[in-house]
Amino acid sequence: MIRFDPSHQLLAIGVAILAGFVDAIGFVESAGFFVSFMTGNSTRLAVGLAEGQHAALVAAIIIAVFVVGVVAGSLVGAHAGRRRTPAVLLGVTILLAIATLLRLDGEAWAAILSLALAMGVANAAISGRDGAVIGVTYMTGTLVQMGQKIANALRGEGDRRWLHHLGLWAALVGGALLGARAVIWSPLLAYALAVALAAMLALRAGWIVRNAG
User: What is the separation, in whole angstroms, between the first and last Cα of the chain?
Assistant: First the structure.
């Protein structure tokens, strides 16, 4: 986060909110699987294999779909060049819209897989000038970096840059809270809100690119 300019930092926070929001939808709709938190699914895969449960196959499929999304998002981003962020976020918006249509048709698991694909793509959205990409769903790494920078600050060797990582983590948790509340109240409304948020982020990213050029 600290290597990015303020406009992209705020955009990354917005994408983290979206990731948390969508992950909560997927978690509730799938009764315990994640669409953006693959560490949790990896543990479910391992436990499912150990216990011989069907959950292992479900977790494996979601992980595979998520990775496909990361690959697709990275390819789109590389092709889009300086318009990487709006192009990738447009792709996320389209995939979330497809998930919404699938949910309307009663295809719950197809919708969940579309959510996972969208979240994989989202991880390729925020890229700096040096090519560094913020993994907006990888909060373990974010918390580790935050802890390391806090330790540096306590030794008098750092500053308050750990607050950037705290903000990214808090954005995902806040988004997840909102997503959970929304999907419990009305699943279709939650899906629609996710599409709207993704679309707004894509428009904001496009505005940033136009004004930077």
Answer: 22
Q: Which amino acid is at 42?
A: S
Check whether 72 has a pLDDT greater than 90: yes
Predicted TM-score (pTM) of this structure: 0.88
Residue pointed to by tokens 């986060």? 1
Contact 2, 134 (CB under 8 A): no
Residues in the chain: 213
CA atoms lying within 13 Å on the CB side of residue 153: 11
pLDDT of 208 reads 85
Cβ atoms of 132 and 3 within 8 Å: the answer is: yes
Structure tokens at 157: 């060797």
* Contact assessment for residue 122 and residue 15, using Cβ atoms and an 8 Å cutoff: yes
φ, ψ dihedrals at 35, nearest 5°: -110, -5
In angstroms, rounded to a whole number, what is the distance separating the alpha carbons of residues 169 and 140? 9
**Helix and strand totals (H; E) in the chain:** 8, 0
Distance, CA of 99 to CA of 96 (rounded, Å): 5
For residue 12, give every residue at least 6 positions away whose Cβ sits within 8 Å of its Cβ, in sequence order, or none.
Answer: 1, 4, 126, 134, 136, 168
